[in-house]
Amino acid sequence: MDARVDDQVAIVTGGSRGIGLATAAELINSGARGVVITSRKPDNVEAAVKEIAELTGRPESIHGIVAAADDPDQARFGVAEAIGHFGACDILINNAGTNPAPGNLADVDLGALDKTWSVNQRGPILWAAQAWNQYMAANGGSIVNVASVGGIQPARVIGAYNIAKAALIHTTRQLALEMAPTVTVNCVAPAVVKTRISRLLWEADEEAAANTHPLKRLGVPQDVANAIVFLCSDKATWITGVTLPVDGGVTGAGGILG
To answer: Which of 17, 35, 45, 253 has the highest local Cβ count within 10 Å?
Structure first.
């Protein structure tokens, strides 16, 4: 099945590495006319734009901006920049995430807790609202939120993160209801993917971490990117409000996360 997003324009928050970078490249390789990626750090934006241009062979189709995921003014700017630079905002991928608050909830630093929830839970609402108000309400589109299987079932060490992702899963359903029938809103829920943000879960013993997944391997960013692009594509126009686990079997075949 060839999932296509021909001539569409996308925003990928947190697009400078990992799942975000892989998704931006896959969108372009699947026909997107333009993709805007965001990151908080200018150096990361510059490096990612260069890498995506090399991966796709289409430097004219990638544009990077510096924007924090949980800042309302920067969300407004980011959507306006996509429309100004490429003429549209057909797709929004809420991928930016953070986890500065590992540990048991009874011991968690409250400042870190607030930041975790601000980026992972509040941020996607800000960007979805701007995409809707500036473009999608009049023109339609698709939104995909990147949650986690930790938002479906509890796991040790990353409780604050998991709660934020559970809220994001319900946010997906709420937005799907509110934005229907012209905008689809879906969610992916990865298990342990080999990215920087998840190193706490796999770096000390990769084999052991892989063995908690029924398919006996960790995910890679491309696994999730493929699912995201499908949910944005012409093959998924009758799917909305869904959370798709991309998890090596953790939620469906009896794996254990953490």
So the answer is: 35
Q: In 3D, which of 224, 20, 242 has the Cα closest to residue 127? A: 20
Q: How many Cβ atoms sit within 10 Å of the Cβ of residue 137?
A: 13
Beta-bridge partner residues of 184: 142
Q: Which residues does residue 186 pair with via DSSP β-bridges, in sequence order?
A: 144
Burial 179-209 (b: 16+ CB within 10 A, else e): beeebbbbbbbbbbbbbeebeebbeeeeeeb
Residues with Cβ within 8 Å of residue 202, at least 6 apart in sequence: 192, 194, 209, 210, 218
Q: How far is residue 203 from each of residues 19, 193, 199, 251, measured CA to CA in Å?
A: 17, 11, 5, 22
Q: Which residue do the tokens 């924090």 mark?
A: 68
User: 55-67 pLDDT, tens per residue?
Assistant: 999 999 999 999 9
- At the fourth CATH level, the homologous superfamily of domain 9-198+221-246 is NAD(P)-binding Rossmann-like Domain (3.40.50.720)
Catalytic residue among 86, 132, 161, 202: 161
Query: Residue 230 CB: number of other CB atoms within 10 A?
Result: 21
Give the chain's length. Answer: 258
List pLDDT tens digits, range 129-166: 999 999 999 999 999 999 999 999 998 888 999 999 99
Whether 135 is a known active-site residue: answer: no
